[in-house]
Structure formats: structure tokens, C-alpha cells
Design brief:
This protein has a domain of about 70 residues: Fe(II) trafficking protein YggX (YggX-like, Orthogonal Bundle), CATH 1.10.3880. The protein has three helices and two strands, in the order ββααα. α2 crosses α3. It is globular, with a radius of gyration of 15 Å.
């Protein structure tokens, strides 16, 4: 059985050339050394923790996932309560058991 945090994980990045001087992190999502974010992506302690432990590739996954959350939960990016929900979801996505899909969520059908 494959380790869920290894490169065999669906959505795992393909090997890419890493430029000298690139900031590297041990990514919590992929479980290996990968290029890190260029700046702290979120305010507060959680943002710092993400900066130190999440790769650029994992952050891209979060961005896509967060779009779905914003739509499904009808969150307002300017509302403090919406920020709290997103922060809780981000914590679970990267450092918990994984974020849970909203109740009743149905993935869009693939076009083809």
C-alpha cells in the first residue's frame, strides 16, 4: 500500500527543476522536500506555520479547494466569520485529518 503522503498521491507534482536559492520546505501534504512559498500566505500563527511547512504545489491545491469551499458555503471574503471558517478548514487541510467536503457536496461532472 502506498504512503498517502508520497509522490504517488493523486495531484502530486511532477519532478521539476529547482532553481538554486529556492527556499525549500518539508511539505506536510506531500511528505518530502519541495519548493516553499515566497511569502507568508495568511495572517497570524497559522500563516507562519503554512509558510514553514507547505510547498507551493500544496498551496495551489489549497487555493483550488478553497474556491469550492467559498462557493459551497457561500462565504464572503470580507466577513470575519467567513475568515474564521476558512482558517479552520485550512488548518484541517494541511495539519489535521484533511478537510471535509461540505455536506451534500457533489463534485462537478468531468467535461468530455
Amino acid at each position: 500500500m502506498a504512503d498517502e503522503k508520497c509522490g504517488d498521491m493523486p495531484g502530486a507534482p511532477a519532478a521539476e527543476e529547482i532553481k538554486p536559492g529556492t527556499r525549500m520546505v518539508k511539505c506536510v501534504k506531500f511528505g518530502k522536500e519541495m519548493p516553499g512559498l515566497e511569502r507568508v500566505p495568511w495572517a497570524g500563527a497559522l500563516g507562519q506555520r503554512v509558510f514553514e511547512n507547505v510547498s507551493k504545489e500544496a498551496w495551489k491545491m489549497w487555493i483550488e479547494y478553497s474556491k469550492m469551499l467559498m462557493n459551497e458555503y457561500r462565504l464572503n471574503p470580507l466577513d470575519p466569520q467567513s475568515h474564521k471558517i476558512m482558517e479552520e478548514q485550512m488548518e484541517q487541510f494541511f495539519f489535521g485529518e484533511g478537510a471535509k467536503l461540505p455536506e451534500g457536496y457533489v463534485a462537478p461532472k468531468a467535461k468530455g
